[in-house]
Each structure stands twice: as structure tokens, then as C-alpha cells.
Design goal:
Mechanosensitive_channel_CS; Non-ribosomal Peptide Synthetase Peptidyl Carrier Protein, Chain A; transmembrane; mainly alpha; single chain; membrane; 139 residues
């Protein structure tokens, strides 16, 4: 099964345990991931896009009205750059949790596949086996 397909199944699954793990891990590493995305990933992406800073991306509906240094009417804008930033953060956190859960599931699968000691056969089967072995020795 492909990694992308497994990730999609993981992200779309409604398992409460997976959700709890995601919330805990996401909360614990949220600041680290945000810094990684903001400080490490986004600057090169911004350079590739012509020096665009995602947090500055917006659609202005109405410019701010200024009276000297005082703002009379604030700017009305749709700031979608921060939304893009949050989506990157989410995808990185979700992928990290997916890889963690995948590793745990792989470990549990190996644990389950370990062969258990075979059960001792019942007494009547053991007796019949001994009789068979004795008959084979005689012949």
C-alpha cells in the first residue's frame, strides 16, 4: 500500500484514540512545528515565489484611512497568507503523527506475528503417538 494512500486513510479515519494522540502530540510540538515551517520552510518557498512572504498575502477590500499618524478607518482585507501557514503546520504535524502511528502499528504487528509455543496435544493424542512410534520401531 502506498504511503500517500495510507496517510489519506489515517487522516480520514475517525478513531478516537488516533485523534487523542494527534491532539496531544500536536499541542506538545505545535510551537516547534510552527517555528520549523515559519523559519525554515517558508523563506525558501517565498524566495522561489519571488520573495513573497506568506504572512503578508492578503486581498485588500478597503484601504485604511489615515489622519497623520492616526488610523481613522482600519484596513479591510482578507488575510489568507496566515491560513496557508496554518495549513502547512497542520500537514507537517499530521504527517509526523502518521509516521509515529505507522511505526507503532508495525511494532505491534511484529509482536503479534511472533510464534507462540505450540500447545501440548491432549493425553489421548500423545498416547496414540507413542503407540504409533512403538509400532514403527517394531517394523
Amino acid at each position: 500500500m502506498g504511503l500517500i494512500k495510507e496517510f489519506k486513510e489515517f487522516a480520514m479515519r475517525g478513531n478516537v484514540l488516533d485523534m487523542a494522540v494527534g491532539i496531544v502530540i500536536g499541542g506538545a510540538f505545535g510551537k516547534i512545528v510552527s517555528s520549523f515551517v515559519e523559519d525554515i520552510l517558508m523563506p525558501p518557498i517565498g524566495v522561489l515565489m519571488g520573495g513573497v512572504n506568506f504572512s503578508d498575502l492578503k486581498i485588500v477590500f478597503k484601504q485604511a484611512v489615515m489622519d497623520g499618524e492616526n488610523v481613522v478607518t482600519p484596513e479591510v482585507a482578507l488575510r489568507y497568507g496566515n491560513f496557508i501557514q496554518v495549513i502547512f503546520d497542520f500537514l507537517i504535524i499530521a504527517f509526523a503523527i502518521f509516521m509515529l502511528i505507522k511505526a507503532v502499528n508495525k511494532f505491534n504487528k511484529k509482536k503479534e506475528e511472533a510464534p507462540a509455543a505450540p500447545e501440548a496435544p491432549p493425553a489421548d493424542v500423545q498416547l496414540l503417538t507413542e503407540i504409533r512410534d512403538l509400532l514403527q520401531k517394531k517394523n
